[in-house]
Design a protein that fits this description.
The complex is a heterodimer.
Chain A: E1 14-15, E2 23-31, E3 34-42, E4 49-50, H1 53-57, H2 59-68
Antiparallel strand pairs in A: 2-3, 3-4
Chain B: H1 3-12, H2 20-24, H3 31-39, H4 43-53, H5 57-63, H6 67-71, H7 83-93, E1 109-113, H8 117-128, E2 132-137, H9 155-167, E3 171-174, H10 187-193, E4 196-199, E5 228-230, H11 233-236, H12 243-261, H13 304-311, H14 321-325, H15 327-331, H16 336-348, H17 357-361, H18 368-372, H19 379-392, H20 398-412, E6 418-420, E7 430-433, H21 436-441, H22 443-456, E8 461-465, H23 470-474, H24 478-494, E9 499-502, H25 505-514, E10 520-522, H26 523-527, E11 543-547, H27 556-568, E12 572-575, H28 591-594, H29 596-607, E13 614-616, H30 619-627, E14 632-634, H31 635-639, H32 654-674, E15 687-689, H33 691-699, H34 704-715, E16 720-722, E17 728-732, E18 738-745, E19 751-759, E20 762-763
Parallel strand pairs in B: 1-2, 1-4, 2-3, 4-5, 7-8, 7-9, 9-10, 11-12, 11-13, 13-14, 15-19
Antiparallel strand pairs in B: 6-8, 16-17, 17-18, 18-19
Helix pairs in contact in B: 1-16, 3-4, 3-7, 3-13, 4-7, 5-7, 7-13, 8-12, 16-19, 22-32
The chains are: A alpha+beta, B alpha/beta.
Chain lengths: ~70, ~775
Amino acid sequence: MTEQDANTPEEPLVCRKCDKTLEKAKVTASYLGNEFQIELWKCPGCGMVYVPESLATGKMLRVEQALEDK
Amino acid sequence: MDGERVRQWEAQCIQEQLPACSAACPVHVDARKMAQSIAKGDFATALKTFQHSITLPRIVSHICDHPCQQACRRKEAGDPLNISALERAAVAFGGKVAPLRKFGTRPQSVAIVGGGISGVVAALDLAVKGYTVELFESAPTLLPRLRNTDELLPGSAIDADLSSLAQLRVVARCGVSVTQGDHENSLGTLVQRFSAVYLAVGGSGDLTGSLEMLTIDAVTYATNVAKLFAGGSMRYGSARYSPMTSFQDGRHAALSIDRFLQGASLTAGRETQGPQESRLYTDITPFEPESRVAAADFSAGYTREEAQKEADRCFPCSCMECVRVCEYLKEYRAYPKRYVREIYNNLCIVMGVRNANRMINSCSLCGLCQQVCPEKMSMAEVCLDARQTMVQTKKMPVSAHEFALRDMAFSTGEAFAAAKHQPGFRESSRLFFPGCQLSASSPEHVQSCYQFLCENYEGGVGLVLNCCGAPALWSGRKNLFEENCASLKQIWLQMGQPNVIVACSSCYRTLKDNLPEIPIQSLWPHLNSPAAVKPNHQLTGRAYAIHDPCSTRGVREVEDSVRELLQRMEVEGKELNPRGETTCCGYGGLARFVNPELTDRTVKRRAQQSEADYITYCAMCRDSFARQGKRAVHLLDLVFDGQGEDPAARPDPGFSRRQENRARLKSRLLEQLWGEKREVSVPALILQISAPVRQVMEQRMILESDVRKTIEAAESGGQTLRLPNGHFLATHCPANVTYWVEYAPGTQGAFEIFNAYSHRMQVR
């Protein structure tokens, strides 16, 4: 989960609530008691983290399944 | 999972049993493997296989009395395989015969009395194991019985094989008679001088007369004299001389002597020693009779080409009955015996990756394997047991069955569950239990059936909307399943213990097996009356192929009554398989939720079996076929109108619609039959979802209700992004799963959905 996801948006994403542009940030992804540091887009206001579709249905899914089999 | 039960399952699967040829061979030469190599033209490997069991390959390939050939199953389709000639071809064309090698050295020495096949084999085996061996033969040469038979066995072959003795430093003392008495070469002296003695003097040795008091154990070859072992034709009778039996005696006596000198048990693990019947089942019916390939030059034996052709007649023997009929068992490229071990090992892992989890959860638990297995071994039993263990030990992957269990909770919850006496009655003589999936797929049929039963039976027909608990059972949730059984039993008691009529095969199986006190009946015999059947002539009067649901496979009460009902409707029902061998549609065992690629293949394979439209009587089977584009009707489509003109083309409603159909059915019935106005929470948000997006949601197991909640959360200030294309991307995590929905306000206050996805990992 340390790789930069390929699906970073070409145009900036804006948080609807805070009206702020998302910025790259180190965030923590956790599942079944395991934690990973990962760089994703995050709202500097409310802290909302954007998980792109390709990450959710690709690498993240594979890691989830691998952790479930541990 | 109980270790003892695991061993029983392993023993039940016969795929690894020796084929008939090897089982009949006194030393279990792997003739099947040899033939397979020769058929491919690989004589070198064939020779290696032969040498694995045979230390005198040149001699044995000429004079073997081949009991394998009498056992060869090819004889049931033509002539038995000429294994003896194939052995000779393996030696002739297999290249250099690999020399025997010593494995280490041992301090003890062994005397072998008798230089026939038995003595020579024992000498070689013991020398290979590292013992010092002296071989005594009264004749001037070893193997005297085999000399002077040049046309059968050339002297050069004998000498070449015997050269192994010198290579292994076996001292051969030819022309030395071992007799009774008290002298240097007496038996008594040898027993004293050597750590062990093997006596194999045939029928003509100088000792023969004095051995009447000797008793020989048929398994260990030990005698009533300490340190003395005996075998060969002096044991089984010279008149019945068989080179391979002598070979076997030498081999097994050497094993005993080795164990004796190492202080190990002489008797342990020898059950499979020597010739035996094979338990391996092989279906011969696909094979056309074929005659033996004749050698152009009989005395020279087969040419390469002749041998290859003959070897190609080997089937080879193999069971694989279950694997042949099951995509799941095929998927993992082995057979139940291996799978059982793999599954057990998987459950025993303390630290590390449990690679077999998905495999355990991919079985549809349909039991076809048991149906076709000659030994009635059931992988369904193994996988269900494993799932229960995984749940118990908290090792069941959380994502595997969560969606299906949520659906079960929907059916057992307020949204669908209900129990009512027939309007105007205070008791029920019968109960109709349509089950959750028929209600989800064809709610109008449930209503028609209930109406028919009410009109035709006196004493009141009650209605119970609920789930039989199959998802809990299949997912290994023993506790949840037992709770559900207990709650169903409570309902049945409260309704006055009536007979229960079920419309779903899975309900039938689940309730019959687990609530035996409840009298369960299938719906179909009840419908087999002129009153029920008002055939829609556009649909009847033509042929369908019958797909029986797997849960009631072989239950005559169910399968027969369906056929009678079809007959009444003048429907020609073609059989897709021998009765009792129907396959699963992929819904069974919740396999679809874990391994959709596999279950799609299972349904496709079934769908391709006939061009005809299928008729089935399980809503899940029908909808599975519909998903694969296979035209299929539900039996009730023919009995009752209500699914339009072409019910075979009706699509699978999908997960969301299934829940909606159930909830609406309950509301409709309560209102129309019992006059109860139910507060149905009308969704405040109207969603516009295109067919492709709906399909994506279906694949990702995202319900409309999940999407709705996500948008509700977003519209009331929840986390949302503005995308460059003007759409919103909302996220919401109500429990274990985080949903993302891309949407935009549509027309008339509706919301148009463009995409939806989810993940389980928490990100912050």
